[in-house]
Each structure stands twice: as C-alpha cells, then as structure tokens.
Amino acid sequence: MKILVCISHVPDTTSKINFINGDSEFDTNGVQFVINPNDEFGLTRAIWFQEQQGANVTVVNVGGPETEATLRKALAIGANEAIRVNAQPTDGFFVATQLAKIIADGGYDLVIAGKESLDYNGGMVPGMLAALTGANFVNSCIAITVDGTSVKATREIDGGKETLSTSLPLIVGGQKGIVEEKDLRIPNMRGIMTARTKALTIVEPVSTSTETKSVKFEKPAPKSAVKLFTVDNLDELVNVLHNEAKVI
Amino acid sequence: MSILIYAESAEGKFKKVAFELASYGKKVAEALGTTVTAVTVNASDVSELGKYGVDKVLKVTNDKLGSFNAKAYADVIKQAAAKENVKLVLLSSTTDSLYLAPLVAVGLNAGYASNVVGLPLSTSPFQVKRNAFSMKAFNVTEIATDVKVLGLAKNSYGVFESTGNAAAEDFSPSLNDADFSVKTESVEKASGKVTIADAEVVVSGGRGLKGPENWGMLEDLAATLGAATACSKPVSDLGWRPHSEHVGQTGKPVATNLYVAVGISGAIQHIAGINASKVKLVINSDPEAPFFKVADYGVVGDAFEIVPKLNEKLKAFKANN
Predict the structure, then answer these.
(1) So where does FAD get bound (chain B) (predicted)?
(2) Which of A1, B235, B255, B299 is a plausible cystine mate for B154, CB 3.0–4.6 Å?
(3) pTM for the whole structure
C-alpha cells in the first residue's frame, strides 16, 4: 500500500497571531512552525500502517523552502520519503490541484490529509482532492483499518459517530481520534539522523486558475473587561444573563 | 439566478442551521435583487422554510438518500444548482455540510469560502469575512469565480423570520452507483442528550473539579440550562470524561450562545476552540486565571459552592419565566 500524507506547515498553537504589510500577510517573525495537528494524527496512523502492514509512506507539502524543516520532522517520525511542491499556496483549490497531480503521478492508494489546517481553517483540501481524483472520501475520520483494498472507517458526526465501509483508492480527512494523542511520536535521535539522508524531492507546481484570494486580515476587536460577581450576588448574575446578555 | 441553500434535516425535520441559512440567504438575496431556493433531502414539511424567506423548494425524496452520503448529497446540490442556474450556493458548517462543500465547489467550478461570518462585505468584487487562525483573526477573502460557494460559520448570523412562498417542487436528480461507494454500516448517536454541536448552551468542566465523581453538579446545572456538557483537554486525557466531550482547538469547536467554564484555567488552545461562543461565563477560584481575560462574566471562588448555588438560582428563575 502506498500512502501519501499531506502536511501543512502551520504556526504552533500557542503562537501570537500578527500581520504585516498592511495586514495582508501573516507575521512569521518569532513564530515556531509545526506539523498541522490534524495532519500529525494522520501521519501517525500512516506510520502504523507502515509498521504493521508494510505500507510505504510519503509526505508532501506545498510551500517554500522554509517548510522543509517540517517535512524533515515528518521523515524523522518515520515517513519513507518527502515531496515539496515549490510554490506559495494561494488558496485551498491551488493546494488541492498541486496535490492531485502528485497523487496521479505517484499512484497512491491511500491519501491522508488533516480535515482542516489550524492557520487558514479552510477545511477544503481533502474534499477537493476527492473531487479532483474521483477517489472515495471519508472526512472527519476517527478510525481506519485496511484489509487488501477494503476499508472500514469511522467518522465523527454531530453528536456521535458513523461506521463506513469503502475501498481504496481513498482520500481521508484526518483528525484527533484516527490515533490518540498519547500515540503521537516525538522524533528520536536515530529518526532525526536517518531523516537527513531520506529523499526530499522538489517538484515544480502546475498552473491553475485563481478561485479565491486573501485580501487582508483583521484581528478581533479588543474585548471589554469581564464583569465579576461573587458567590453572594449570583442573583445579579442571573439577572444580567437574562436582561443584558439575553442568553437565558 | 436565485441563491441556492441546502436546508439540512434529520429524520424529516429541519435543523436549526437550515433556518439560520435561510435567514442569511434571504438577506443576501435582497442585496443581490434575487430570490432564495432551497434544496431539501427527505424533509417532510418544507413549508416551514417560507417563514425564513425561502421562495422555492426543490424537494428531493429518495430512499437511497436515507443515510447521509457526501458524494450523493453533493451530486443532488450540484444538479439543483445547475437546474436553477444559480451563482451562489450557501451551506452550513455542520459536520455533514463541511464534508460535502468541497465536492460541490469543485463540481461547480466554484470558489469556496468556508467559516464565513456575517454578510458579504461587497458583492462586486465578492468579498466575505471568515474566521481564520482558530478564531484569533478574520480573513477577508475574495471569490473570483462566476459561481460561488459559501459555508456559513455556525451560530454566526442568527435566525430571523421574514416571508417567502416556499413553493415546493418535486425534484428527482439522477444518482449513479459511484456516488454510493462509501456505505454507512452503522450510526451511533447519543439519544435524549443535547449534543455539543446542537446546544445553545454548553457547560464545561476542567481539572479544577478535581475528579470525575464531581461532575454531578455540572450535569445538574446543564440540565437546568438545557445545555450539553463538555470538558477541557486534560480532563479527557485523564479519562475523567469521554473524548467526545473534549472541546478546544484539537477537540470539538463550540459556537454556542452561552459557554459556562467551570474550573478551566483557559489555555490558549482551549480558548481557540470555544471563542466563537457569544457569551462566556467563567467560574474559577484563581482570579489570575487567563480565562477571565476573554470572559464576559466571571465568578471568582469555590466552584463546589458556586455551581450548586447558581443552579438553585437558575432553577428559581426558570420556574418564574
């Protein structure tokens, strides 16, 4: 089984979010970048398939040279090889178009991408990949097993979960649950050393039409100060929840 | 040239998001000088949509669509869009709609903006504001394509009554076998419990509650408020509460009217996941807890004293209102 794991290079969850160039660009100054958490859960499941079922795992990112450290981390966690599509992503459709080309060229059986990246929160790349490649598609996937070409997967639904059966080739939108947090791996020294010599292929992008573009960013308006109550004036709290906030 | 909305239903009845989407669609349609058409799948009484401004309903009734199937449902929406020659398709942010939206967008060669908050900033060029960076910023996005798909962020617009005919028309899209290559085997859904996704109020507990045995008072408070219960990440990691209750950046997102946080300090990842909630009430013994910085209302003190007392006050209030 050939697995492709799509990796988004995103600011660490604790990063301060600021913008530069007239609020048109994210300020990367002093920001630590990580593998998008939803992608890392998927990568960890892919490594499980590698160890248990002999799968070959390729990781891919669409981005500039600055994202290679993130791909090397994925290699250190255990991916066999990496691909970087050498382009600054402009929107989800651009990324999906690039990845669809990689999938067509590489003949992957299973593609796992995080259901959403923690920076742009588009949540569209896995579904667009499914539409562009015609492969089967499971989003918000919280469990997956593969036997030959048959697949059993579980997806999260509002208020519960749903068990699905399908077959390869398959696109998966992964999230926490596809492996548990405790199963995530921190690269060890041996992993980091071997990652240095693993193949990281750079591929030039294919051209595509512009569907959407980011115009600018805005930060939420500063919040007014919290109104504090004590255990002795909870009546007043109930009153403001009803009359001021109008939520009860 | 009408606007198309996909009005979601469960067991024949419309979800609240269907009415929110209709309300939003009506307002956008007014700005564009057009009307709102809804497509429904196995909904029983579609006339209800008229109350929220829907003029026409393409009513799909098909046993093959008995359980949700992303490709098949996307196919239905694509065909409805083509039939009505629509330029704008509106979807909600339920798990199902997020699943099918990109399929619809690619199928219609449409640019897709998800997580949209508020009405379009302008319609020519077509610009919308959307949540980004896990609620820490907004991104203004321009959609350049002729046909456009918007995903409205949950609980970001509200439900408003207006008038529409909701004239129903049976619609039978052609479905092919390839649409059903992902099959639903079984569905597990908590019954009789308010889910985090549907709740108007969420009551959430953190490590400050000291142990799973202390959740009774939160459940009581939730029952009084008609709320869903949730928890912070450490609580689910410790196994005090099921993972399905974990809310935050890597857990479930919360966008309720009222979010009550008890004994949660307010780590940045937790805040990111719940910040879309309109009103935040924080109960914590530590006045320096970072959660108070983003809260609207706070009570500093012992949760074990405050929560039962607040519950009594709320019960009394509910009895009289």
Answers:
(1) 207, 263-270, 284
(2) B255
(3) 0.94
